[in-house]
């Protein structure tokens, strides 16, 4: 049998004569976290149109194909669900804001009269990215939060505060591994413990934080108890 005349050779020759090609058209752009590059990159959103080709020349339309995301750096294509993952910059901001909100919630539950609690909360918020945060700023924000909600220190986590916690933590939780979610709860627990054992209001607030982070009840209890034991 002559080279190229077998079944595989005939299939290859036919593929060169006839085939389907996709023509991509840019329909949007932006910045995303590229799974291929492992970092923030620019992207183009592409819409595809299939064409039946004869000798490499498009002759008939064959319909549309789903949009894809093309990385401007590595040129790989991904499904549009890749845009659900926040960029590194956005993720850092979400984490910073979440820690800030949690610290305020715990202080609101236990009050700002304790210097130790304020110091611990301030150090936690600074480490999260608000490097210029001061104890006075946190105390003022807690007072403003109490005035806005009509909440009295020592009360269980009110509906308004619970909503704020969920708004800060719900978008973040799916992008954090279990150790990351547990770390936020443990940071909150250490703020609450800075001035003594948990109060009922602090426990209620910490339980709300854990639930918003999708940590199960048993693990919340375990983590709150482990925070009481110095490492």
Task: Chart the SSEs and their pairings.
Elements: H1 7-17, E1 18-34, E2 39-54, E3 57-71, E4 77-78, H2 88-110, H3 115-128, H4 135-149, H5 159-169, H6 178-193, H7 200-212, H8 217-227
Antiparallel strand pairs: 1-2, 2-3, 3-4
Helix pairs in contact: 2-3, 2-4, 2-5, 2-6, 2-7, 3-6, 5-7, 6-7, 6-8, 7-8
In short:
This protein is 49% helix and 22% strand. The chain is α+β, with helices and mostly antiparallel strands. It has a four-stranded antiparallel β-sheet with strand order 1-2-3-4.
Describe the structure.
This protein is an alpha+beta fold and 231 residues long. The protein is 49% helix and 22% strand. The protein contains eight helices and four strands; from the N terminus they run αββββααααααα. The protein has helices at residues 7-17, 88-110, 115-128, 135-149, 159-169, 178-193, 200-212, 217-227; strands at residues 18-34, 39-54, 57-71, 77-78. The protein is elongated. The protein has a four-stranded antiparallel sheet. α3 (115-128) packs antiparallel against α6 (178-193) and α5 (159-169) packs parallel to α7.
């Amino acid at each position: 049998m002559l080279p190229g005349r077998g079944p595989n050779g005939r299939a290859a020759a036919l593929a060169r004569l006839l085939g389907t090609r996709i023509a991509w058209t840019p329909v949007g752009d932006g910045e995303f976290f590229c799974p291929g590059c492992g970092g923030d990159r620019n992207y183009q959103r592409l819409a595809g149109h299939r064409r039946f080709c004869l000798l490499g020349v498009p002759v008939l339309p064959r319909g549309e194909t789903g949009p894809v995301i093309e990385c401007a750096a590595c040129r790989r294509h991904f499904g549009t669900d890749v845009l659900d993952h926040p960029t590194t910059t956005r993720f850092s901001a979400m984490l910073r804001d979440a820690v800030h909100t949690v610290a305020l919630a715990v202080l609101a539950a236990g009050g700002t009269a304790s210097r130790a609690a304020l110091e611990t909360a301030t150090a936690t918020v600074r480490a999260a990215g608000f490097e210029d945060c001061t104890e006075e700023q946190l105390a003022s924000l807690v007072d403003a939060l109490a005035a806005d909600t009509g909440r009295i220190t020592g009360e269980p986590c009110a509906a308004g505060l619970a909503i704020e916690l969920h708004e800060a933590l719900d978008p973040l939780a799916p992008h954090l591994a279990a150790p990351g979610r547990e770390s936020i709860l443990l940071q909150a627990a250490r703020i609450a413990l800075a001035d003594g054992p948990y109060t009922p209001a602090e426990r209620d607030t910490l339980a709300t934080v854990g639930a918003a982070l999708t940590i199960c009840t048993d693990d919340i209890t375990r983590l709150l108890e482990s925070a009481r034991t110095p490492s």
